[in-house]
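[agent] plan:
  1. take the single chain provided in the ticket
  2. run structure prediction with default settings
  3. attach structure tokens to the ticket
  4. add a short note for the reviewer (M.T.)
[agent] executing step 1
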Amino acid sequence: MTSLSLEQKKPMTLPPVPLWRQWLRNVLGHHSLTIGAFLLLAIVFLAIFAPFLMGHDPYAQDVSQRMIPPVWHDKGSWEHILGTDKLGRDYLSRLVYGTRISLVIGLAAALISGFIGTTLGVLAGYFGGKTDTVISYIITTRLSMPVILVALAMASLVGGSLQVVILLLGFLLWDRFAVVARATTQQIREAEFIASAKTLGASTSYILLREVLPNILSPLIVVVTLEMAHAILLEATLSFLGLGVQPPLPSWGLMVAEGKAFMFFQPWVIAIPGIALMVLVLAINLVGDGLRDMNAPGDRS
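[agent] step 2 finished; step 3 output follows
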């Protein structure tokens, strides 16, 4: 009787919660991250499966069908839900295919700039001294140059294209990566696990790649989202000015530029790609804000 009562009084131990479930619970607990991730996944889905979802070729021209308004207008047609442009090309198809251009440029530019800035920042933060002085001077020099003016000047000299825009933005947007990587590396370079690795005779490259870099990835991932959105906006600006992606590629900035002659009579030709650009940048920024809050719980508002 006594042994039974003792067994009944033993506390029940719950099984440990899997890491993926904890991560999912944290993600769903951040409303901005959930909304941003949902929007971004939907946009990526449209970009990947555009050939299967769109019933019109985004490059096919039909002048007899030019400037058809969207379906909610009186003269609209369900055959062209968002209407057509000045060359008779289906606006919805060009909008969805333009998602590919924006995502490729944003991601590629963020990866290139992230590699450059993270490398410089880690080297400056870990070695310090003259290395830090030289790299800090390079960062300050880059910060003193306005990105859009430099991009306009270089694009006008080299010529606009998809590859040129990616390289230009990749080589111009690395400063934030460098600043964040330098600051976080300085915080952990005297940590115990770094000292233990040195004591065990680990090489400098091993310490930087296997000890330092994994511990500074969290803030750098947030920077990736910010710079990706920044690159998408800059690409749209360059394309609008005729120095970015060239026709007939369906860039959203180029769609706005092509429709500016009709903005007072058919404002939807500018409003539709402008809203699409706003939604994409908003989704990326919401994801970045959510990741920042997850990595710094004390800073949540």
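[agent] step 4 note for reviewer: The chain has 14 helices and no strands.
[agent] ticket updated
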